[in-house]
Amino acid sequence: MLRLIRKSVLGHKARFALTAFAILLSVGFVASTYIYTDTTNEAFAGIFDDAFAGLDIQVSGVTEFSFSDPPVFDESLVDEVAAIPGVKSAIPNLFRSGVRIIVDGTTLGGQAPTAGFAYPAEAGNEFQGFVIKEGRAPVGPNEVLISRGAANDNGIVVGGTVGIESNRIDAQDYTVVGLLSFGELDSLGGATFAGFDLNTLQELTNQTGKVDGISVLAEDGVDAAALLAPIQAMLPEEIEALSAQDAAENQAADIQEGLAFFGTFLSTFAFISLFVGSFLIFNTFRIVVAQRTRELALMRALGASARQVRTMVIGEALITGVIASALGVLAGLGMAVLLQQALTQAGLTLPTTSLKLLPRTVIIALVVGIVVTAVSAIVPARRASRIPPIAALQSQGPAKPTSLARRLLAGSIVTGFGLLLLFLGLAGVSGALPEIAVVGMGAAVMMIGVTMLAPLVARPVAKYLGAPFRRLFGASGKLAQENARRAPRRTSATAGAIMIAVALVSLASVMAASIKGTVDELIDNGIQADLFVQPENQFALISFTPELADRIEADPGVAAVTSLRQGAALINGSEEFIVGVEDSFNDFITFEMLEGEVVLGSDGIAADEGDASGNGYQLGDTIDLTFPSGETATFTLRAIYSSPGISGYAIGQDAFALYQPEIGDAQVYAQLEPGEDLATVKARVTELAEDVPSASVLDLEDLRTEAATQIDQLLVFITALLSLAIVISLFGVTNTMTLSIFERTHEIGLMRAVGMTRGQTRRMILSEAAIIAMFGAVLGVVLGVFFGWALVRTLADEGFTAFVVPFVQLFIWVVALGFAGIIFSIWPARKAAKLNVLEAIAYE
Prior knowledge:
The protein is α+β, with helices and mostly antiparallel strands. The protein has four domains: about 1-50 and about 245-400, no CATH class; about 50-240, no CATH class; about 455-530 and about 700-844, no CATH class; about 545-690, no CATH class. The chain contains 25 helices and 26 strands.
């Protein structure tokens, strides 16, 4: 049997080549995500090891926050640590988000993070991973270090001038005294860093007399480990002292935690591609088994058992899977490099080192590739084992196909179970799982069920999809239409892979359109302001000086102004989104007050209905908030609200400023005086904001356009990640058409003999491929729209109010997949056209 398996694979190399290529691509994508994240993790670990190599102990605040700056503490602790016997020096640290570099009125960094840090002159040219490549450290006010990448990209040189803006201070001119890198990287993930002396950064960020860390160097001959206990003993409970090695590992672990999410995100799309590839594998073995009916029957007649035939087919799949998966691991090395280059081009520059191919990566890649291949071949293998020996005496003896009635029953059960899960999720009956998870499981099961039911609709759908080709190409189009209809299982199995890929793309398109619709409804019904000011960078911890709102309110064309601040706090041990609002905020953003009123004062808090009901809060309850500074305050619940524009918890702006003084206004809303011209007032407000270059002044149409642009960018990114799954599904078309030519060689020879030209043969194959691809696309669009509706319904409590179907965009996808089907079937079409007529007629 082993010899038969080996000879069978070698004898049908062409038939298994595209299957192996699909496995290779899928496994390579899976391997590349692990290789890339492992390589980046290793590089970060090395950088932080180097960063703390010259230090002995690191003192820093303990925090449970993920998206806030490190907690600060009093600067006087630096002198107290320095006074401990055995301590050579204690260097204060301060790192704050939201410090921006301005060049020619433009904020550098785009949507990437921005931050400022204190660079001590006594550290020389290296400090905590930062390396001064040119110039010197800043030693006084209005001096700054900037990243060399930003300098090179914007023509900045040492001695030049840039603007510096923070969350609390308007842009001011600073002299560039040096250029730095992070390790060997001139740019880190597109982020921009600015280095200052400590006093300057404290003033910029409203942290006078505060630091967030202390770097300790021991005296020569003093054991650093022996200093940990006395240092920790004099520190408050919320501050800890760690060895430099532990601090480096903690820093690297924080980075790796963020990268783990990114790796999981990429791996999800990789496994989607692998799932799509399983359809190609199944279809290949199903067709190959049908074509080898006489061969397999002859083996049965010569004494092979059903089990041996089944083993042979699965063995062929295993050999294909092993070889393709092994090559996929090697391809993953190259794909990891391509992934790194693509992310770099997109502005996400991360440190790297020599590629890390860990045993875990090899094992996962091989296992998933081999298992998926073997499992996909089980059904064809069972069918092969049921071929009777008598079939060896027939000229054409494909096994009798499974009854469509049985398929209808099985497919209906699976689809019904998927629908049940989906509607249970919609009804909130999800047990311990999130509702969206149950809806997602239901959708996945439904896709399998619809794939099983697809042959039942293949004939009528292929009839309508094939009608244009019949009119365009006459006899060739008619034959293509009939070929797609007469083999509904083959058509559906090939279309199934396309269906899944297109369903996911359609789901993303529907969600993007629905988010746009929700934003439109929010703008139309939820915002009672004429002008809106927000940071250009919506993804970093950026705000701007509160004085901007005062300047806008003083404009004679402005009737009223309010602002909103954004931060975080721990509530019941969970990090929650907190906004600081003025009592007039309800005049600018629609709040449906379910209970109470938005008059919060200095100790009141409002909660959205989801948080209130989830925690069992009632009006008058007290809620403890712990802020990133470590301070805890008690607030009284004064209101429960529902708003499409705001979620989470709201406190008064005075209270917010007391506990998070470094944060300025994240948004400013302005209402115009009656009769004022919007464009004129907008121009004046834009001029008022010139000293805050990171602020964008928008009217409601601008806001609508900007939101749509950001949503479209996200859709393009997701579609790009799904593109591999689409390509693999289209390879299924190539494979099916190639194998069908083997199966129909005799038929094609007869048609050529009675007058069909090579051109007509090519058009027949190309048209059939287009029909199959469009069939899969139609099924995918229908499923994607349905899943989009379900997801919007599930997320209704999160503010989704609109369900929008982008009909034109989805129609373009169907047509595009038809053209793609043509392109991916050019090779089999040419092969069919070149068949020798006499040899084809004699072929069995």
